[in-house]
Fold this protein.
Amino acid sequence: MEEKRRSIRIKKPVTVQYCRNPDVDEKKWDMTFVRDISQTGMCITLDTSFAPGKILDFRLKFPTAAQKWIDLKGRVVDSKMNGYITRIEFVDLKEEDKKLIGEFIAFYYKGV
């Protein structure tokens, strides 16, 4: 049975930083890469598991807009062993950031 997706998901390189403890004053950022991304969320590989519902802060940098970090929040949907493949749903996404993500996806989707 195929998983039904709400939006187009692509597998292209995106640099992402994440903060394990977004509520502290001095945030510590760790880096990973996106496995796949859509306008509603992403799948990343982490070095630890997070419980579903956990909110994390993220910074994304797209090759199509390399000078700009996109700051956003994401909710953990699922975190599986196997390198802690973690599915993230974006929350409170600003329209301008949603547009940048959409432009990135559209740029690569045409070539898929």
Summary: The chain has one helix and six strands.
